[in-house]
């Protein structure tokens, strides 16, 4: 996460997505913490900075609430830390800190170009005045300090640019800055030098006169001695003022756009050039090899300069092209009349004493001829360095290879935004990210797409990427023909391939998720062909061979839909899934889950192609384990498994009476229990368990016992829950099925929580969390984190509880699992009420209540969660003194609890009504209700443990005080 104060206060996620920090006071709190750059800020200081003399009614609680809101907005509680000295923001990813470091590095550097780059990077961080939103309040001193540092950086940059000979452009640019800061003598001196060196002596003298008058009028001072000396030098046209000579030995064109996301690459390639005389940049078409090469070459300073030789349109005669570029000619003939071997030798002789860089661009179609010439030059001209770009290596001794990667997502987004001129907001940001991802981070493709934004908008471009070759055509005017459309870029590479290589590309393109060597060989692509395609940058290498999405789309356009290779692929992945299916139950579960994870895109492609029932059957349990309930429901509609997936996916209740086997019967019961539909689940479980035992299906028996544990918990039969859970755990342990152990641990942990054994509950939930993380069952990880949050809540660790629940909610959101998200939300509501933040608690519980009510309507069954939520809302109303509202909520909760038949839920509603009675002075009624609730809890062996007695103890105190 990054923070910005060099302009309006801003926060960005690691991928560049803006993060909204709502409410002015919360933004002010963040700004105040950023002002102190990681140092703790006392609560008193924060209160004074944020409210001044107009403090809120409860300052400490209000500040805590703002801190909580800031933590929620940032999504990481650890960022805002608390210690005895106060609050601090634990991050150095702040543009102001980065600016200060870059400026310090620039001031320490003796290399002019390095200094210029550092200063340019530092100043590029500024988006407006420092602390723009708060510079007139607590941030005033910090803003003034940063403003002064920025001016220092600008002055330093001006002097460096003068030393590099950039006086012409600088003269006009500094004019605007001098107008803003007319009395800064160092800035004025740089401006006078730039004017003089640009041949504008009279303007330079006028600028000095203007400064002298302003200093006298406003400060009563004369110009300093350095400025006086500069004025005298300008008057006499001192030769010392002339610009330093700048080499013009280059034909490298000036870039018309900035290079984005390549800082590390430039540094790495520059280091390679220091250690190797031949560096070759490889990579797929459009990845930016040429742009990177030119950026690197321009940083090299050799007496003979830097020379670019463009080979893309050449059909041969490489030596002639190089000679023409360097101006190497025979005294009696033109180069075209000299035999090629002689010309190459003459070129080598001419360069023997030279020290220069030769940039050979786009060598792939002439790689043999280029390699021969380069080998000769490197052998005979020791001062020559070669930087080549090619889709394959020159394969010469001493060659240093650098594979230019596509841009990472953050850099791709930055480039697309810059080129399109669009500023992504919350609505367009996901579309920008989708464009960058689907175009594989290829700079050329991103530029072509950005050119379409003005006509189509960001979303319009994203929605048309399925027809990318038409979309990205005609948008590249000003480039070579081979780069004017996306199709032309790939055409250029395709034309360099042999027929066997082309056939291999088509066979690889039908694997949307890439493929293993085994899968490639299954469709007729052997290791030798793979090696050739990897060497030509058409395919990425082992362990999975992949094509860029655009290259794959190009190949699929050329593939005959009836090509037998498609049927071969379908058969291969179907057999793989069938082979994997039995291993998903037992000790090899983790290994085969990982194997299917790698092939998920390929498996989906086969399903879309064939709809094979055999493949569906093989993947059903995999879909469940990975939490892909929607996918499972889509492919199993009309079956018993489909009925279970329908419920888990939130698609409504679809009853099934046809069960082909005991496992499908158990699965539907398992789904019913997920919603607390005990009445339906009981019969299904009894029948499934009997069938499992008759068939000696140990896995099925263990699964049914785990479900029976959950059923018993709902019914308040804790003895049955304990025995069933222990049996399930034992059998799953024998089988080595980690998922099963996870389920049993979860239920037994919940049982320990209900009975007050918090240490055991914590151990069991942590064991389940380790299993879930090991199997990469992220929805289960979310549930386990929230379960640990419940234990932290019950043991009084409210901050820790909130952290667990927030992690669980964030992970559930990433998995798009609303049920796990809801479980975490309720936990956060419990934390908020116990922390005294009733408004936040009410907001969370009302959202939960609305969702649960909607599910009750959709599924036609009462939900256990409703009783808890109504009770919590009732306690919130009581806490505000709203007894009438509290009574209504608790009565509604009591009716819901009786409908689901859970004694503990009935007791909870009675405890809420007891508080209402006590607040109204009906102490005998309150005591009676508490006694009935306690008896109900005792009847199922679950008296209130210490961690859950807070509400009851409060009611008892009210009764004692009023009696």
UniProtKB/TrEMBL annotation:
Keywords: DNA-binding. PROSITE patterns: OMPR_PHOB. Coiled coil: none annotated. InterPro entries: AAA_22, BTAD, OmpR/PhoB-type_DNA-bd, P-loop_NTPase, Sig_transdc_resp-reg_C-effctor, TPR-like_helical_dom_sf, TPR_rpt, WH-like_DNA-bd_sf. Pfam families: AAA_22 (PF13401), BTAD (PF03704), Trans_reg_C (PF00486). Residues 1-91 form the OmpR/PhoB-type domain. Gene3D superfamilies: P-loop containing nucleotide triphosphate hydrolases (3.40.50.300), Tetratricopeptide repeat domain (1.25.40.10), Winged helix-like DNA-binding domain superfamily/Winged helix DNA-binding domain (1.10.10.10). It comes from the Bacteria. Residues 1-91 bind DNA. Belongs to the AfsR/DnrI/RedD regulatory family. This is ATPase/DNA-binding SARP family transcriptional activator. It comes from Nonomuraea africana.
